[in-house]
Amino acid sequence: MDMPKIGAFLKELRREKGFTQEALAEKLNVSRRTVSRWETGANMPDLDLLMEMADLYQVELREVLNGERKDERMNEELKETVIQVAEYSSAEKQRASKTMLVYFALGILSLFANAVINMLDAPEGFWLSFFKGATFALALIAMVFGILYTTGAMMKIQAFKLRLIGKKKEEKA
């Protein structure tokens, strides 16, 4: 923490508001000499006084602790970054929703096909048994993949797979 920088900033803020050291000291119930020590960086105000001064000067506590005002360019950059992250997050959620929709739609369609096959009054044969088992298995697999995808386990599996592939490439090189 750069105490002289903070002190100079406190002095600048006091002057902007048109306060003398005496007036500020009276407002904060401290001595003029205490205000002078803060402004030279010899001492720092307690946290509760810093918060009170930030309110009085209409600045953020972070600005007081940094000893400078936030740069508007920095605010704009931060705002742009937040917007980009939000857009990325939104796109990821849309992609995840579509993937989930595909998994669960496939599962529901497979269960529906299985129910239709079971309702048929056809004689049991190899192909009928095969389709019953295949539709049930497809429904089960689709739902398991859907659950893995929703819980984030699918991403962990993919990351592990990529690490394994990366290690194998390094071994070959």
Topology:
Elements (H helix, E strand, L loop, with lengths): L2 H14 L4 H8 L3 H9 L6 H11 L3 H6 L5 H48 L6 H26 L1 H20 L1
How would you describe the overall organization of this protein?
The structure is a single chain. The chain is mainly α and 173 residues long. The chain folds into two domains: 3-66, lambda repressor-like DNA-binding domains (434 Repressor (Amino-terminal Domain)), CATH 1.10.260.40; 82-172. It is built from eight helices and no strands. It has helices spanning 3-16, 21-28, 32-40, 47-57, 61-66, 72-119, 126-151, 153-172. The radius of gyration is 33 Å and the shape is rod-shaped. The model has no long low-confidence stretch (mean pLDDT 84).
Strand-and-helix sequence, N→C?
HHHHHHHH
Q: What is the straight-line distance between the termini? A: 49 Å
Count of strand segments:
0
**What is the helix fraction of residues, given as a range?**
over 70%
Over the alpha carbons, how many angstroms does the gyration radius reach? 33 Å
Structural class, by secondary structure, is mainly alpha
- Total number of helices: 8
Number of domains: 2
Report the uncertain regions. none
Sheet with most strands: none
Averaging pLDDT over every residue, what do you get?
A: 84
What does this entry show, briefly?
The protein is an all-alpha fold and 173 residues long. It has helices at 3-16, 21-28, 32-40, 47-57, 61-66, 72-119, 126-151, 153-172.
Features:
434 Repressor (Amino-terminal Domain), rod-shaped, 2 domains, 173 residues, mainly alpha
